[in-house]
Design brief:
By secondary structure, this protein is of the alpha/beta class. It is built from 13 helices and 9 strands. The protein folds into 2 domains: 157 residues, Rossmann fold; 125 residues, Glucose-6-phosphate isomerase like protein, domain 1 (Rossmann fold), CATH 3.40.50. The strands form 2 sheets. The chain has a 5-stranded parallel beta sheet with strand order 2-1-3-4-5, with helices on both faces. Strands 7-6-8-9 form a 4-stranded parallel beta sheet, with helices on both faces. It starts with a helix and ends with a helix.
């Protein structure tokens, strides 16, 4: 099978993140964030997952931050005032994501401080541009690039664990993840693949499930381990496969749920990131492992991981709903 754009983009990540890790943030961007009373991180789909991890990074800096989907920000607006700031995360600069574009326009019109994290050549003002436009509809490098930028922003505001030395170790960990993904024991299930983890790893579980659904057309779900325990695991059977993600596993609940699942006759595989990184940065190479799993399953299932949105789902009128 010819190399896919998804394969190329996955393998481009260490080099792209190495470049971004060494690239200084503008003083203006840092000052704009430093003046914010509260920070809203806005995104859709994969970009929302970046927003969720970004919130954890800003919390490490002692800053009030909240992730919110673009559509919710538009239609069910939270109480935002002039002291707040908005970080819009959108690979396509809001040009192909109607509610993201509308959220950016509304925040600008309201006079709040706005920053965007987007692709190169996106054309947005007050933007940190990351990587070229992705050529696969299964987005990968734009996601991990946004996470590096968010980590650098949080460090500039006081998140000491996300220091330049820690961020500089991420590309090497990604190379190790690409070379030794440790996903061989994860087989395509007869029914459902379930990924779960704690805290930041639960975000990685949801992002990994999205990549599997997009690239391989495989039913997959991502859960917070506590949410999985509280009822969501009940209908799972031997036709399903569970993947337990770590770090973190602060109280041992991820391991305990894994053992309980095994006792119920479910297939369970532990997938751990062993790089010397803070747990929130460890999600970046851990995500790469799941990207590679999605690519592998796409090949095994004979699916095109680069052309995801097709048929009625590709109707332009559907995607323009909510445009500013």
């Amino acid at each position: 099978m010819p190399q896919t754009a998804l394969d190329r983009q996955i393998r481009s990540q260490p080099q792209e993140l190495e470049r971004l890790a060494a690239q200084p943030l503008s003083h203006e961007s840092v000052e704009r964030l430093a003046q914010c009373h509260r920070i809203w991180l806005v995104g859709t789909g994969t970009s929302f997952h970046a927003a969720e991890l970004g919130v954890g990074m800003f919390h490490e800096a002692g800053r009030a931050a909240q992730a919110i989907p673009s559509m919710q920000f538009m239609n069910w607006a939270p109480p935002v005032d002039h002291r707040d700031g908005v970080i819009l995360i959108s690979h396509n600069a809001g040009q192909e994501t109607a509610f993201a574009a509308a959220a950016y326009a509304q925040a600008k019109d309201a006079g709040v401080r706005v920053l965007a994290i987007t692709r190169e050549g996106g054309g947005l003002s007050e933007a940190v541009e990351t990587v070229p436009k992705e050529t696969s509809q299964t987005y990968t490098v734009s996601y991990t690039a946004a996470l590096v930028v968010l980590a650098k922003m949080a460090n500039a505001l006081g998140a000491e664990s996300l220091n330049p030395e820690a961020v500089a170790r991420v590309p090497g960990a990604m190379r190790d993840a690409i070379d030794h993904a440790a996903i061989e024991r994860i087989a395509i299930p007869r029914r459902l693949l379930v990924l779960f983890g704690e805290g930041p790893a639960s975000v990685t579980a949801r992002e990994g499930a999205l990549k599997l659904r997009e690239a391989a057309r495989l039913p997959a779900e991502g859960y917070d381990v506590e949410y999985l325990l509280h009822g969501s695991a009940v209908p799972l059977t031997g036709d399903d496969h569970l993947v337990a993600l770590s770090p973190p596993d602060t109280n041992g609940l991820v391991d305990a749920v894994s053992r309980a699942a095994g006792s119920e006759g479910l297939h369970v595989t532990a997938l751990a990131e062993t790089a010397d990184l803070p747990p929130i940065l460890a999600q970046i190479p851990l995500t790469v492992r799941l990207q590679l799993l999605a690519l592998r399953f796409a090949v095994e299932r004979g699916q095109d991981p680069d052309r995801v949105i097709t048929g009625a789902w590709d109707d332009e009128r559907l995607w323009q709903i909510g445009s500013p």
